[in-house]
Amino acid sequence: LNGGKVDLSSDDAEAVDIIVDLFKQKFDERVKFGQIFVSCHKNATPVQVKKAQEKVATIEKELQKSPFVEIAGQYSESSSEENIVEDIKDNLSPIKAKVIFAMQVGAQTKESFRDDDGFYFVKLFGKFAKQEIRYDDVKQLIASCLESIQKNRILNSFIEEILQNKDIKLFVF
What we know:
Largest sheet: 4 strands, antiparallel
Shape: extended
Structural class: alpha+beta
Strand order of the largest sheet: 2-1-4-3
Distance between the termini: 54 Å
């Protein structure tokens, strides 16, 4: 709300946060990329680091021969859903954001880079510029979001009320 202080109930503040996050995901500068992840936390033992580096070396060789997505499916230690990511810059680690936002669409890292949780190879599939939005363009989205939030509040209240009723009897047929 442009830095101004607005007194909102905690429920309304939560709704605003949900809508702001939704708008960031939809309209902020963002990227779509594939990743190959090799786990190696910054406090890993020398043996764990050596094992991770050996895997990284294997992946580097394989990327010279085979498509990125195929190698990601074969070697990445993240789930297959996490191998293709679309996210805003603010949600990426500073290291990952620096590497990815410096790349051209279609490019992939030739060597891994290290982040706090391990080594990464990335291929950039798309870059999306920050979009300016007008209220008329998003008012239906805001209304839908508020309606969904209200439905969730009612449902949660109903479930809470049921759980507080100690005379619940379950019948199994």
